[in-house]
Amino acid sequence: MEKMARVTTALGGNTLTGRTMYCHLDAPANAISVCRDAAQVVVAGRNIFKIYAIEEEQFVEKLNLRVGRKPSLNFSCADVVWHQMDENLLATAATNGVVVTWNLGKPSRNKQDQLFTEHKRTVNKVCFHPTEAYMLLSGSQDGYMKCFDLRKKDSVSTFSGQSESVRDVQFSIRDYFTFAATFENGNVQLWDIRRPDRYERMFTAHNGPVFCCDWHPEDRGWLATGGRDKMVKVWDMNTNRAKEIYCVQSIASVARVKWRPECKHHLATCSMMVDHNIYVWDVRRPYIPSAMFEEHRDVTTGIVWRHLHDPYFLLSGSKDSTLYQHIFKDASQPIERANPEGLCYGLFGDLAFAAKESLVTADSNRKPYPGDRRHPIFFKRKLDPTEQFESVSSSALSVFETEPDSSSMGWFVDTARQYALAGRSLAELCDHNAKVAKELSRNQVAQTWTMLRIIYCSPGTMPSANLNHSIGKGSASLPLMNSFNLKDMASGMGSEARLDWSKGENRSENILLDSSTTLITNDENEETEGSDVPADYLLGDVEGDEDELYLMDHENAHTEEPEYVLPQEAFPLRHEIVDNPSGPDHLQDKADSPHVSGNEAETVSLTPVESFSLISISHTLYESRLPPDFFSALVRDMLRFYAEQGDVQMAVSVLIVLGERIRKEIDEQTQEHWYTSYIDLLQRFRLWNISNQVIKLSTCRAITCLNQASTTLHVNCSNCKRPMSNKGWICDRCRQCASTCAVCHHVVKGLFVWCQGCSHGGHLQHILKWLESSTHCPAGCGHLCEYT
C-alpha cells in the first residue's frame, strides 16, 4: 500500500518532505487537525485522542490525551481544532455537549484546561478565530452558536439561528468580525460577532442539510458549502445577495470541503457515506475530479491540508482506523480514463458531437454539412501553470442543426396533454386514447389502442386451457378473429356443409348452415334471420383434405338451448333423395343415438360433396374469457417495439393503463428506464402536472418516490421566531397562537398568505379584501406589503 514517490517542498525557512504513508489507529477517527508548523497532527474520535508527529518516513505517536482510569465523555470527540497562533492550544467538541480546551504546555499528564457546559446537546463543530488568540466559536445540535473568551469561564455571546441544528461554523479569514454557520434545514447564515441578536444575511444553499463550509483563503467573498444533496456550491458574498458561481455534483453526501492552498479554483471533498474516496475538484470543470485518493476502505471523516501554503500534501482520517498522508504525485487522475467523445440529441432534434481536439483539427478540410455550426474547442480551457496535471485532454464540439419545423414535437405535447391514463374503465381509456392518436394522425398508435381494447375488453375470449382441445390435431396455433356473426360468416362458405359427428361427441348441439344463412326452426319451414351475437372463430387446416371451422357461442355458454332441426328442404338438392339411404357406419350409429331427433337423422343421411366446410357450435365446453396472460407476450413485444423506436410515451402510457395485466411481463429495471425517460421528456417540455401524474400512477418504487422528496415545510412562530413543532397551533416556547390572521385575529387553519417582508398575513380572502382599500400591513407595522 505504501508508495515510494517522495516530495520536497520549500516553504520559506521550512522544508516539507514526505511520501504517501499511513499508520493504524486504535479506533475510528471522527476529525483531525494539524498544527501551524505542519509537523504534528491530532486525531480525535469517540475512543481515540492522540497526537502524532509527521516524520519523513512514518507517523510517530507523541502523546495520548485520554488519561485516567475511567475516561469521561469529555474525551469522546466529535470535532477537534488546533489553534493556528498558539501551538499548545487545542479545542474539542464533545458528544455530551461540552466544549473542552487543552493546554499541551501543562506539566501534568492531564492536559485538560477549561470546560464549557452551556450547550444542551452534542457540539458538532468548534473553530478558533484566525487572528484572535482567545476567541473560540462552537455550533451545536441544539441550534445555538456560542462565542467563548478563553480568559473567562462562560460564553460571551450566544447566537440563535432560529432553526434546526448547527452543522458547521467557520470564521472568515478576511473579515475579522464575520463567521458563517450552516444548518440542518439547508440554510447558511452570516453573523457579525458584535451583533448576536440577528444574523446579517441568510440564504438557502442546498436542498437538505448543509454539512460543511469553508472560506476561500485568498478571495474574501468566496464561500464553499457541501450538503446531503451531493453538491458542492461556491457562493460569492461580495454582492447584495449571495450568488452561486460554481456547482460541483458528486456521487454521495458531502461531509467535508477544504480549499486547496495556492490553487484558486481547487477544493477537496470527502463523503459522509457510500463513497470512501477523497476528490480534488477544479470548480471550473465540475463533472470530473482533477485528482482522486483511493486508499481508505471506509468512510473518510476528516481532511486537512498539511500546510496553509503547500498544495501537495493532504492528511486524512477515516472510520477504517487509519491516518493517511497523501501526495499528489501518487493520486489517480480520472481524466485519463474519461471518454473524450460524446453524442447527444437536443430537445428539438439538434445533434451535438464532441471529439478529441486533435481529431477535429485533422479533419479541418471536411466539407461542412448543411446546417453545420462549429464551436471550436468548446470545452478547452487555459491550463493553470501551477496545476500538476498538464496533459488534460480537451474536446471540440460540433453542432448539427435540423431544419426549422422538420422535427416538431407538438404531437408529443398534445398527446401528453390529452391522453387519459386513469379514472375510467379500461375500454373507455383505450377508446379515448385511440381517438386522440387518430386526431393527431398517428394511425399506428390509434390502431394499437384499438387492438388493446379488443384483446382485453372484448367479451369473446376463451381460456387457453381449452384452446388446444378445441382446435384439434395439427392446429396448435391458429389465429383468433373477433366480432363476426353468423350472417357475415355464412356467405364465405361453400353451398354445401355437413356435420362431422366423429368430432362432436361431447358437444350438446350441432347445426348446419346453408349459403342463405337461414335457420329452419319449425316444420312449417319458417325462415328466421341468423343470429348477430358476436362469437369467436378458429380457422385452420386439419388432417386430410377437410377444412374445419369451430364456432363458439359465449352468450349462453352454460344454459340449456332448444334443439335445432334442419329439414332437407333447407338445402339445394343435387341428387335423387332416397328414403332409406345407406350411409357411413359412424353416421348410422349417430342416427340411432337417443340425442338425435328424427329430422336430424334424415338430414345426416345426405351424401357429402367433396371440399366442404364444417361448423360446430359449443355452449358448455368453453369458459367466457381468455386468461389475462394469453396475449401478454404479444403486448410485451409491442411495448418493446415502441420503446426501441423511441416512443417511450406509448410504452409508459400502456404500462399505466394496463397495470397488473402486463407489468409482471416486463422487468423492473426496464420499466424504470422507460418511466425516467418519459418523465425527463415531460419536464423538458415543462409539463409538470402531467409528469407528476405519471409519477403518482407508476408502480416502480424508484419512480414513486421522486415526488416525495423535499415535501417538508418548516414553520417559525410569528411571535418569537422559533421553529414550530408539528403538533397544534400553539407555540411551545411563547405559548401564543402562531398563525393568526392580521385582519380578524383568529387562528388560520386553511390557506394562509403572508408578506415575505414583514411576515404578517392571514386568511386569503381577508387579505384580498384588505388590499382593496389599503397597501399597508393590516397588522399596523407600517410595511407596504406585497403578495405574489
From TrEMBL:
Coiled-coil ranges (or none): none
Compartments in which it is found: Lysosome membrane
Keywords annotated in UniProt: Autophagy, Lysosome, Membrane, Metal-binding, Repeat, Transferase, Ubl conjugation pathway, WD repeat, Zinc, Zinc-finger
One of the record's GO molecular function terms: zinc ion binding
Annotated catalysed reactions: S-ubiquitinyl-[E2 ubiquitin-conjugating enzyme]-L-cysteine + [acceptor protein]-L-lysine = [E2 ubiquitin-conjugating enzyme]-L-cysteine + N(6)-ubiquitinyl-[acceptor protein]-L-lysine
SMART domains given in the database record: WD40
Keyword Transferase applies: yes
Superkingdom, natural source: Eukaryota
WD repeat start-end pairs: 116-158, 203-245
Residue segments, region Disordered: 579-598
Pathway(s) this gene product operates in, as recorded in its UniProt entry: Protein modification; protein ubiquitination
Task performed by this protein: Catalytic component of the GATOR2 complex, a multiprotein complex that acts as an activator of the amino acid-sensing branch of the mTORC1 signaling pathway. The GATOR2 complex indirectly activates mTORC1 through the inhibition of the GATOR1 subcomplex. GATOR2 probably acts as an E3 ubiquitin-protein ligase toward GATOR1. In the presence of abundant amino acids, the GATOR2 complex mediates ubiquitination of the NPRL2 core component of the GATOR1 complex, leading to GATOR1 inactivation. In the absence of amino acids, GATOR2 is inhibited, activating the GATOR1 complex.
Quaternary context: Component of the GATOR2 subcomplex, composed of MIOS, SEC13, SEH1L, WDR24 and WDR59. The GATOR2 complex interacts with CASTOR1 and CASTOR2; the interaction is negatively regulated by arginine. The GATOR2 complex interacts with SESN1, SESN2 and SESN3; the interaction is negatively regulated by amino acids. SESN1, SESN2 and SESN3 convey leucine availability via direct interaction with SEH1L and WDR24.
Similarity comment: Belongs to the WD repeat WDR24 family.
Name of protein: GATOR2 complex protein WDR24
Name of the gene encoding the protein in the UniProt record: WDR24
